[in-house]
Amino acid sequence: MAALLLLLLVSAGVLLSSIEAQEAYSQLPDNYRKGVDLALQQLISHSGVRYHYLFFKSLLKSDIELGFDVGYIYHNFYLKATKCGKGTVDVTQCKFRDDRPLIDCAICYKTFAGEIEKEPKPYVHCLHKPALTEDMKTTRVDHCRTMSYQSGDSTILASKGSK
User: Where does the signal sequence lie (predicted)?
Assistant: First the structure.
């Protein structure tokens, strides 16, 4: 009986964590959700990816609004594998896997009127967390800082973001 109760509690915890992650995603501002969606599209396009991934949590968010509906976004976040296969349409029942490492993603891009601009090309860098080195993290941030938009524009990481 105790084993059944334990199994029920663990199952409820897994379902709640999946629901909390979906809630965390839905609470992101729209301009950040579009970046997460872009990273997920690139991730599932790789043939080696077998599972569906969901947004897990934000590590760092930074944005600059320059006016005239132009903005620059930097977002560092985790994706987590689910037990659902790649290509799953209804992800509401997808429970997180705890046997796969998190994927650490950093993305920076320019927006105009709430849409991601094609130029300059958005930068998306996602890697399994254990493989991510401090040098790689520095390279990511440097790349986003030096993305050349137009002379005189602010850089993405010039503002102080929120965690």
Answer: 1-21
Domain boundaries, the chain: 2-158
- Where does 2-158 sit in CATH, by number? 3.10.450.10
**pTM for the whole thing?**
0.78
CA triple 35-38-41, angle to 5 deg: 155
Residue 125 above 80 pLDDT? yes
Q: Which of 106, 90, 100 is nearest to 48 (CA)?
A: 100
Torsion of CA 17, 21, 26, 32, to 10 degrees: 170
Quote the CA–CA distance of 122 and 110 in Å, as a whole number.
Answer: 7
Other beta carbons within 10 angstroms of residue 24's beta carbon come to: 15
Pair 123, 95: CB distance under 8 Å: no
